[in-house]
Amino acid sequence: MERAKVICMCGSLKYTTELMKETEKLTLQGYNVISVIYETRDRDSYSNDEIKLFVELHYQKIDLADAIFVANFNGHVGEGTQTDIDYANQTGKEVIYLEPVLVKNK
Fold it and tell me: What pTM was estimated for this model as a whole?
């Protein structure tokens, strides 16, 4: 088997179940998916250092990946996910969207 394309999952944790399903679907399509960190406790219970670690490790995952997969369910792209997209663009990563992105007129 050839080396599979490595994709880093990006998206809002309010869609945890959907993120897990997309991770499975992409894996079954032959991609090597690096998942998001699924929080196991109330977000407010994490220390600032723990949140900072989650973020730093997420960017390392993007660095390891060939592409990011933006799980923009219902067109939703939050501030954190937009930052991921910007970082991926700055570092030359391919950006793949679950749903088409509507371009807003300025």
Answer: 0.87
Cα separation, 32 vs 90, whole angstroms: 22
pLDDT in tens, the chain (106 residues): 899 999 999 998 888 889 999 999 999 999 999 998 877 788 889 999 999 999 999 999 999 999 999 999 988 899 999 999 999 999 999 999 999 887 655 5
Please enumerate in sequence order all residues whose Cβ is within 8 A of that of 5, keeping only pairs 6 or more positions apart, or say none: 30, 31, 32, 66, 67
Tell me if 81 is assigned to some domain: yes
Structure tokens at 56: 């730093």
Helix (H, G, I), strand (E, B) or coil at 101: coil
Domain annotation covers residue 77? yes
Both structure tokens of 1: 């088997």
